[in-house]
């Protein structure tokens, strides 16, 4: 499914090398005046081609709003925003050689060979741009009630963040992953629902929908497993029983290394079923952590706003 949410709903669509990608948002309150300059700033944080640490693919990621906004205010109808794809190089992608670490093979099997393989198609990290747009709106609505969300790099390549770690991997034709820490401040106590509607459950579902995210940890996470209860109970938890406590909500996200690298790798030829070699072409980030920060914040904002409305908190 490409839809998330009960009250604040998103449906993302499009492919990396199609004419456009986008999102339909249902549940925005009527009369909300979004700060579009702030939205553009969020989009720019995620946009490619802005530094030597990211892919040189040049996309402005400007959002064209097709519906749901009239005279600067939301109408209450579904809001649809699209982002045109401009700087594509589809010839860099071979249909019969799945790239290691990507969804090429699994998408080929699931969709019986009909999936758009160019740039990863619908599975591409490019689809996080519509999520950032929706998250930018959610962040503004939450900020109106004193809730702020901020992410920062915690580790890159297993070490404290340094630009040179990324540049060294890039020079070697390789890539690195990392860990991102995120905090939401200003949440009221009692946000969330028991069991399947818990804050952890809902946020995890969104965070794991971000390509390359492989682990999520709340509060002190695995560290708690090595504590005694007398110590663990002194932790200022942001979530208890699946509900927000009113304390700051902390979580960390592990992001795997970018799978598209310049080194030769093993794959399989889908036509013959025989082992093959591949050298991935195209333009790719040596580390997606810098551009992932607004995506992780957006996912958190979308999930928290949905829980906010579900819980009956006024917008």
Q: Tell me the CATH architecture.
A: 4-Layer Sandwich
Structural class: alpha+beta
Query: Please, how many helices?
Result: 7
Question: Which percent range fits the helix content?
Answer: 10-25%
Shape: globular
Mean pLDDT, all residues: 93
Any idea what the CATH superfamily is called?
Answer: Chorismate synthase AroC
Q: Which consecutive residue ranges, at least 5 long each, have pLDDT under 50?
A: none
Name of the CATH first level: Alpha Beta
Strand order of the largest sheet: 1-2-3-7-4
The total of beta strands comes to 15
Largest sheet: 5 strands, antiparallel
- Please indicate the count of domains: 1
CATH topology: Chorismate synthase, AroC fold
Instruction: Name the helix and strand elements from N-terminus to C-terminus, one letter apiece.
Output: EEEHEEEEHHEHEHEHEEEEEH
């Amino acid at each position: 499914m490409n839809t998330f949410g009960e009250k604040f709903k998103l449906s993302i669509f499009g492919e990396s090398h199609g004419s456009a990608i986008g999102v339909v948002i249902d549940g925005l309150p009527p009369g909300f005046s979004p700060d579009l300059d702030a939205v553009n700033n969020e989009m720019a944080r995620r946009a490619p081609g802005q530094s030597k640490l990211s892919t040189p693919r040049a996309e402005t990621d400007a959002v064209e709003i097709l519906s749901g906004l009239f005279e600067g205010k939301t109408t209450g109808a579904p809001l649809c925003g699209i982002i045109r794809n401009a700087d594509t190089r589809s010839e860099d992608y071979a249909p019969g050689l799945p790239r290691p670490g990507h969804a090429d093979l699994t998408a080929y099997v699931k969709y019986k060979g009909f999936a758009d393989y160019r740039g990863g198609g619908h599975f591409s990290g490019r689809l996080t741009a519509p999520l950032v747009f929706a998250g930018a709106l959610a962040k503004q609505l939450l900020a109106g009630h004193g809730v702020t969300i901020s992410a920062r790099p915690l580790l890159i390549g297993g070490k404290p963040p340094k630009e040179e770690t990324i540049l060294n991997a890039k020079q070697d034709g390789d890539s690195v992953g990392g860990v991102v820490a995120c905090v939401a401040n200003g949440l009221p106590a009692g946000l969330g629902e028991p069991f399947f509607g818990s804050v952890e459950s809902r946020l995890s579902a969104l965070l794991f929908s971000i390509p390359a995210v492989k682990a999520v940890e709340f509060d002190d996470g695995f560290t708690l497993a090595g504590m005694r209860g007398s110590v663990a109970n002194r932790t200022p938890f942001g979530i208890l029983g699946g509900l927000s406590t009113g304390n700051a909500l902390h979580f960390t996200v592990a992001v795997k290394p970018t799978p598209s690298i310049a080194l030769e790798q093993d794959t399989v030829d889908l036509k013959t079923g025989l082992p093959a070699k591949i050298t991935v072409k195209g333009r790719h980030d040596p580390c997606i952590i810098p551009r992932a920060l607004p995506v992780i914040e957006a996912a958190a904002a979308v999930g928290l706003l949905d829980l906010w409305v579900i819980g009956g908190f006024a917008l």
